[in-house]
Amino acid sequence: MLNTINFFSLSYINSIHYKKLIFIVFIQYLLRFALCIPLGANLMLNNFYFNILVIATTCIAAGGLIINQSYTVSTIRNQLENQVIDKRITKKNAYCLFVILNVLGVGIGFIITNHVEQPDLFGFFIVFSALFYLYASFISNIPIFNNILISILAIFPLLIVGIIDLLPAITPINQSQQTFVFSTILIYSFFLFFVCLIRSLVYDIVFIDDNRKRNRNTLSIWIGIKRTSYIIFFLAIVLLFAVIYYNYTVFYKNTVAVIYSLFFVLAPLVLLSVKVWESSNKNDFKFPLKLLDFVLFFSVCSLFLLLL
């Protein structure tokens, strides 16, 4: 009995990075109730099936986070300051949780794809699960590929809403509206991919010493902090101009949206670019990391502006 209680202790709750899972749930419901429904999109899933879609996505993500954390802990005996997984969580238990959560998530995915009569879409759930395992097992040690893959995994919860709930409902009559809503999801996914990519590069710089202790190869270790900062600066500038273009073409008639974007997205990105250009050591990147978290959260919240 004591072992069972220990198995589901606070250490396990922390090991799945529950804040990331809450964010996944938040953004999926935001897509449905602040984007798809207000814009009049036809949806395949009723509220019950959408809820279990969110559960499936969350289970697979939780399993991936646990297996990744178990590989992280197994490479070093002494815990790093920023780690939340407990030493009592063995690799065996982590594998068990990974399998249980993924079987549950993929199984629900099978039920949902059969409900919408699109069994081929079931493969997306399998791919999502497999990529988490591949990342944890060896891709996390391949510079730039690890950053790209983790950024792809970060936007999967957005894409799965459009792929499962939106695309199967397209008809010749509603094709224009469905395409517009799905393209909006793609635009947000593109933006969040870039933010997550930049964030992962900055994160690797901030924790470069920890990565060296774990023998984890990252771009900042491979080519150095300063050269990596140039890449981050370039990506930030690309993202900055992309946001300006989006504001000019989509939000230009919505004064509130333009002001919101200016203060909560554009201004932080400009400040980020300046700080990254001036930075030369790992401590200089702690503030840019916080800026990226700020941009990530408020860019997602900008979906509320579509209700105006």
Please explain how this structure is put together.
With 308 residues, this protein is mainly alpha-helical. The protein has 13 helices and no strands. Helix 4 (47-74) packs antiparallel against helix 5, helix 4 packs parallel to helix 6 and helix 6 packs antiparallel against helix 7 (145-166). The longest helix is centred in the middle third of the chain and has 32 residues, at 175-206. It is flat. The termini are far apart.
Shape category: flat
Total beta strands: 0
Average pLDDT confidence is 86
Structural class: mainly alpha
What is the count of helical runs? 13
Give a quick precis of the structure.
The protein has 308 residues and is mostly helical.
Q: Which features does this protein show?
A:
308 residues, mainly alpha, 13 helices, 0% strand, flat
Give a topology summary.
Elements: H1 2-7, H2 10-15, H3 18-36, H4 47-74, H5 91-115, H6 122-137, H7 145-166, H8 175-206, H9 208-213, H10 219-223, H11 225-249, H12 255-278, H13 286-301
Helix pairs in contact: 3-4, 3-7, 4-5, 4-6, 4-7, 5-6, 6-7, 7-8, 8-11, 8-13, 11-12, 12-13
